[in-house]
Amino acid sequence: MLAGQARPLFGGALSAVVPQGATDISDLREIPDNQEVFAHAHTDQSLIVELVEYQAQVADQDAARYHFEDIASSNKALEHGASGGTSVVALPRSQLSLSECSSAWMLTGTQCVSKFNEEARNTVVLHLGLFRLPQFSTDVLVTFNDPQIVSPESSSATAVGPHSDRWTVQDFQRLLQTLTLHNPGLFG
């Protein structure tokens, strides 16, 4: 895939520029219908585009943190590492292709998590993009998992190394900026 070429998501209902060399995990194993999952071939980094229920009770400025904490809970992140150092910024709609969103946010935080229910825990910087679509009762959640410290006992230990082709925050931001809705029927 060429850098800069939009990749169809959810059967073409959405599209976005995904970093070069991304492996579509649905080619390897079953993925829930509400997710598109991509992995880096060499670094254990991953990108997930997920359609989740719009949380009307959560204010826009708090919604990214709400989803971050939900992910931490799902991943059984250690308490002290679940939400350490999070920062949330609004994404200017003028820089986004997904004009249908009422607001968009980016959060960066760290989680200390295990993979595949292992005992070993890895420190992962999680970049989260959130697009709020109340008219479709949907939040579009985009997460970029970027392992920083991998336990030697983790199954990921051999996958993470000093690769010059690591995905960057700029790659993630390009995905957020290029996310485009082509078919609102995706939302039901």
From TrEMBL:
The keyword Transport applies. GO terms for biological process: heart contraction; protein import into nucleus; regulation of membrane depolarization. Pfam families: Mog1. One of its GO terms (molecular function) is sodium channel regulator activity. Keywords: Protein transport, Transport. GO terms for cellular component: nucleus. It comes from the Eukaryota. Coiled coil: none annotated. Belongs to the MOG1 family. This is RAN guanine nucleotide release factor.
